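MODEL INPUT / OUTPUT PAIR
PAIR INDEX: 1
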Amino acid sequence: METAEKASLARAKKTQGKSTVRAIVKKALLVTVAFFLLVLFDANYNTFSALKDGMQAKGKWQAVFLSNGQIYFGHLSPYGMKYFVLKDAYYIQSSRVPAPAPQAEGAAPTETEEQPQFETRNELVKVTGDLHGPENAMFIPREQILFWQNLRSDSGIVRTGTSARN
């Protein structure tokens, strides 16, 4: 009987060895498929390159151009798969104001019937200063962003935004 038991144990070890090999092959196949799906996903959405670029641009200011024509300035970073978040957000508000009338040196101001001249003044406005009192973050759908640009440190917007934060 001893030989029958030994033969049975040998068969059990062989079966166990085959199932271990199958499990390893299944895991390797699963990891390979997951890797290729991840690569395919990244090729379509550039997720990892965007995150890497976002990490490199951390601390930089960006100009964000939206599909509705608006431009915002601040610190842009990915927020999940469908959004970006813009912190320390500003925008430029343009207004028309009467321009001072040109006068000759030494001449007294005169009343004229001419149309008043106007000039455009641009002001950098912090989003948190808007009437509805938003918090200091804008969540922008990914499909609404046409493009963004990193701003140089000598940009007037960066200087103004940095001095306003301090």
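PAIR INDEX: 2
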Amino acid sequence: MALSKEVSYDYEIRGEYKFIQERAKTAVMEDGNELSSSYHRRVLAPDADVSGESSEVQALASAVWTDEVKAAYEAKKAAEAE
């Protein structure tokens, strides 16, 4: 009877400004069978510093956060601040 903890991630790109939603699933396993699991979700906006993130998140950000998307997001934030 060996217990282990496994963490897996999945991602979604949502909305006009390409927010990256990351969902982490933590599963407690016993001999290959899942006993329980829980989820944690977080959202990264186009102005987030992803330099300390996983290579997957960095690749997603690089692919979807174009200069155009970043500029549009900054303009939206500036307009809301007025």
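PAIR 2 NOTE: Helices lie at 55-64, 67-81.
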